Amino acid sequence: MVDAATRAVLLEAAALIPGIHVLDAPVDFSGRPGVAVAVDEGTGSQHQLVFDSETGVPIGSRALGVRSDGTGDLVLWESSGYSSAIVGFAP
């Protein structure tokens, strides 16, 4: 579990990466509150990586599309549940 101060610094650092931004409003993902880091694809879609608000653990990802009639976002796909491991090499 990552403490609140560290989570805040990590999200602020992520927001400094060109094209990445932290969403202002809390995200409710699969019934769990979360914080999303997003990148706009420039094609009317946005990809989000959602972190648990309390632990900082990734809880899901999703892609949103903008509806052509302007009625809001359309969820193109979403996935919940992540596994992670510490490895000695990068793929």
Can you walk me through this structure?
It is a single chain. With 91 residues, the chain is mainly beta. The chain has one domain (4-80). The chain is 13% helix and 44% strand. It has 1 helix and 6 strands.
Brief descriptors of the model:
single chain; 91 residues; mainly beta; 6-stranded antiparallel sheet; 1 helix; 44% strand
Count of alpha/pi helices: 1
Please state the CA-atom Rg, rounded to the nearest Å.
Answer: 14 Å
Biggest sheet descriptor: 6 strands, antiparallel
Global structural class:
mainly beta
The total beta strand count reads: 6
> What would you call the quaternary organization?
single chain
> How many structural units, i.e. domains?
1
Helix content: 10-25%
Distance between the termini: 25 Å
* Strand content bin: 35-45%
Mean pLDDT: 77
| Basic shape | globular
pLDDT < 50 runs, ≥5 residues: none
Order of helices and strands: HEEEEEE
Helix and strand arrangement:
Layout: H1 4-15, E1 20-22, E2 27-29, E3 32-40, E4 45-52, E5 58-66, E6 73-80
Antiparallel strand pairs: 1-3, 2-3, 3-4, 4-5, 5-6
Short summary:
The protein is mostly beta strands and 91 residues long. Helices cover 13% and strands 44% of the residues.
